[in-house]
Structure prediction request, 169 residues.
Amino acid sequence: MRAQRQHRRVLHPFEVLSDPVRLDLVRLLFVGEQTSGDVATMMYDRFGIGWPSVSEHLGILRDSGFVDVLPEGPRRWYFLRESWLDLLREAVDDLDEEWQHHAADRELGFVLPVFAARVRRGELQPAEPPLPAPPPRGGRRGRFGRDQSARGVGRSHDSDDADGGSSFE
Prediction:
């Protein structure tokens, strides 16, 4: 009894090409048709992956509209569809249309409150704030905010000698 093929989710064209193995498979098929055995051998040499993994990637490419399969006896020939690049162009056009749709929002600055809300929810990390400037060095503040060093509190009895004001003679 023949195993029934699992239903795969059709991926967005960018998701399809985001995997390095699938991207390499597409590049491999640029030159023309390849048998599944040749593809599996080349992918093993490049990535060290086995036939089941290559078969899964080829199935995703097929289900997403990038490649077609031509069975010929015991061999299966894989080749890029003529429309594979159109899938990418349509995806880029959709992104461009959405980008243009939100141009007014970007110009008016509506995205800044969204960024702040996402930071508050913990979805984004804000940039590290700059370190605060060190406080100015002044006299030592004591109780009630008085400058204790001006009154001589906390100073050594030899403090006049420490600044070189007297000699050891």
Notes: Residues 13-81 form a domain with the Arc Repressor Mutant, subunit A fold (CATH 1.10.10.10). The first strand starts at residue 34 and ends at 35.
